Amino acid sequence: MRRIRAWNAEVRSRTWLTAAIVAAIGTIGATQAHPSDQPIVVGSKAFTESVILGEIVTQTLQREGIRAVHRRALGGSRVLFDALRAQEIDVYPEYTGTLDQELLGREQPRNDSRHTAPADPTTLTGGHAERTGAARAAQLRRDGLAIVARLGFEDRYVLGMLPERAQRLGVRRISDLAHTAGLRFGFSNEFLSRADGWSGLERAYGLRGESVRGLDHELAYRALEHGDIDVTDLYSTDPEIVRDRLRVLEDDRGFFPDYSAILLARTGLPADVRRALAPLSGRIDTQTMARLNASVLIGHRPESQVAAQFVAGLFGGAVQPRARTWPRELGEYTLQQLALTCASLAAAILIGLPLGIVAARRPALARLVLGAAGVVQTIPSLALLVFMIPLLGIGFAPAALALFLYSLLPIIRGTCAGLGGIPRPLIESAAALGLSDSAQLRLIELPLAARSILAGIKTAAVINIGTATLGALIGAGGYGQPILTGIRLNDVRLILEGAVPAALLALAVQALFDGIERLWVNPSTFSRSKR
Amino acid sequence: MLRYEAVTKRFGPLLALDGITLECASGRTTALLGPSGCGKSTLLRLAVGLVQADAGRVQVDGRTVGGATLEGLRRRIGYVIQEGGLFPHLDVRGNVTLMARHLGWERGRIDDRYRELLELVKLPATVSPRPPDELSGGQRQRVSLMRALMLDPELLLLDEPLGALDPMIRHELQHDLKELFASLNRTVVLVTHDIAEAGVLGDALVLLRAGRIEQQGSLAELLDRPRSAFVREFVASQRGARELLEEQNAAHTRMER
User: Fold this and answer.
1) Domain positions in chain A
2) Which one, A149, A241, B46, B56, has the greatest CB density within 10 A?
3) Long-range contacts of A357-361 (CB under 8 A, 24+ apart)
């Protein structure tokens, strides 16, 4: 349900994302068997509840002696769903409503009675779920997927109000909103854009949205408290509902679809893994989930610890959260970040430099190469990362490839401009000496273009480090990991834990290149050269 | 030594050289003279293969310029341009010894030749580690000459070597060049628009106009027996040529006595 919440902030261009997703679906290849010696890979979406659930699943498997790793906070629903189909991950927490509404790509057949008759919502929803359940299972099977556990809680949309305000207006149910004038609605942008969000709700209940505005979900609570808005959309397991004692309005016409939490897995999951996960069925109810969310979001405890405590309570035994110390984590992020940047930058230099040299010699080719690299540059980084998933899956490879593509243009342009900017008399003097083409390039042209080439590489490196933080969205790790977690948890300290080293690394790289420039390009001979 | 046979060269609509036939004698200095755009620089550029003739042929030492042998041929030619064309990323020594190092000369041989050249162009050894932009204009041209002479070429081509210098330095370098040409005993072709300079340095003068040879001969011939109104005007427009001739004649007479 909250699938895009965290990275919504990153997505400025929804169009691009949509295009990327369409391409992703279109190009997903045939599935292949998961090698048995590989650990079970658990995925989770980029929001707290999903990460906690992913952590619970991982630790439950590990308790049974099954090797399991958690690729946490990979991204939105589509990223996880595609990664599962591509066998990049083995299992992840999902919601039935998301499957039906978005992932399986079909319209929810709407029973008219649900819109008009204020009947008993439980029987209706239940009957409805039963019907779509069989169809859903069949459709999942065709994709090689199956629901392996229903966790026991629902994380559905609800509407919430401050208790005093609701009391004063006499609002208890959503249908009460229809005959209350002067209400100010504030909804998350996702809720506003979804068919099962505001547009459907408005029609189902005959609401008159006199004042409706979009705002970030995290801000909605503050806006409620401030009295800026009266009604907002919430998720039923939001810990703030309990903390702020919000009035949850009864969905008396059963409009919101069922969003039961499930574990979605590949059908080829080994039997011992399925057995190990079975005990999780029905063991997490809405209060439990809200409590777990609260521990992380309000209590500021790490997801792994909260999950460990839950798993220990469920199965008995000691709490055994893995000790993850700050310096060790920082070291890990640094290595991941450096690996990403070094690999992609090295490849970009190896490819970009020769391309720039060739382009400098052939103006027609230069236009083509620079044009193509320029187009790549205009693709928003997030969209480019998502493009990579169907080709290379998730993790290091797609992130490195995307960074490589981003690094190409500055390097090619720097090389091309540097070589093209050498004064003609110098080129002719070199040729007249009797140097061969390659010797002329090596001894004269490249050294003279060095400043421009280095500037291109430096630009590429700095862009690279900045963009590499987004690699965390597709599981490549790096400094983006604490940044994304920090955004998700609204934890400034965590954001800084990623942002500060990333900035320092960018500065260090800048200093490194300045140093190289001083050594390689003699400034006294070049900068003051009159030509 | 350097021969042009019916050489024609066009740059777009511009006819730069119009069927030039010319022979620059071995061991002597030929000065190519004429107003801007007359094609004199193009003649030099043809000789080092920086441009190719549209018709006719250019021969150095009996071999046609161009093709697979061009690199080898260029190493037997020294080429100096107006502002020297020194590489800004190399110091004086680096510029001068570039080709020798590239060709794998032994260090001792490079050192010997380098010292010899410093003496020849009258530069102190202290300039060696300096980058070109820390040199004066005159020093830059001397270094450029060193670089051109490093491999001891048979043919030395100079394209307006003194064109960018102020009068004092110009006069001094002119004098040194004359000495140098005399001691080298190599074929030298010099491009200039200054008839006095051509008179001082050149054994033979070739006056060009719009891609054709207007007149060739000694300074005295150009002054005393101009073959056309253009020659007369070109000579008359430049001060100093007549005085130079008289000076030369006087020196000649003194020697005769």
Assistant:
1) 5-154+258-315, 157-249, 326-526
2) B46
3) A357/A415, A357/A419, A357/A441, A359/A412, A359/A415, A359/A416, A360/A415, A360/A416, A360/A419, A360/A420, A361/A419
Q: A26 touching B, CB under 8 A?
A: no
Closest-approach residue (CA) in chain A for B46: A432
- pLDDT of A77 above 70: yes
Homologous superfamily of A5-154+258-315:
Periplasmic binding protein-like II (3.40.190.10)
Nearest CA in chain B to A428: B50
This model of the complex carries an ipTM of 0.89
Distance from the B134 Cα atom to the nearest Cα atom in chain A, whole angstroms: 8
**What average pLDDT does chain A have?**
80
Identical fold between A5-154+258-315 and A326-526: no
Mutation site, A446, A451, A525, interface B, largest B CB count within 10 A: A525
**Predicted model pTM:** 0.65
Residues in B closer than 8 angstroms to A530, CB to CB, are 133
With vertex at residue B81, the alpha carbon angle to CA B75 and CA B83, rounded to the nearest 5 degrees, is: 135
Q: Please indicate whether, in this complex, the C-beta atoms of A443 and B98 are within 8 angstroms of each other.
A: yes
Residue A111 — pLDDT band, cuts 50, 70, 90?
very low
Q: How far apart are CA B236 and CA B241, in angstroms?
A: 8
CB pairs under 8 A between A and B: 75
- Least confident window among A35-39, A54-58, A204-208, A426-430: A35-39
Spell out which residues of chain B touch residue A439, defining contact as CB-CB under 8 Å.
Answer: 102
- Structure confidence at residue A522 (pLDDT): 54
CA distance to partner chain B, nearest, from residue A411 (Å): 21
Provide the total of helices (H) and of strands (E) in chain A, helices listed first. Answer: 25, 10
B93 inside domain: yes
Chain B contact probe: residue of A426, A428, A429 with most B CBs at under 10 A = A429
Amino acid identity, residue A424? R
Q: What is the mean pLDDT of residues B229-257?
A: 76
pLDDT digits (tens, 9 = 90+) for B79-119: 998 888 999 999 999 999 999 999 999 999 999 999 999 99
Which domain covers residue B101, as residue numbers?
Answer: 85-152
Query: What pLDDT is stored for residue A378 in this prediction?
Result: 85
B68 and B185 both lie in a single domain: yes
Q: Do B89 and A521 touch (CB under 8 A)?
A: yes
Which strand ranges, in their side-by-side order, compose the sheet holding A231-235?
A211-214, A184-187, A231-235, A157-161, A247-249
Q: Looking at the predicted structure, is the pLDDT value of residue A268 above 90?
A: no
**Residues present in chain B in total:** 257
**Is the confidence at residue B143, as pLDDT, over 90?**
yes
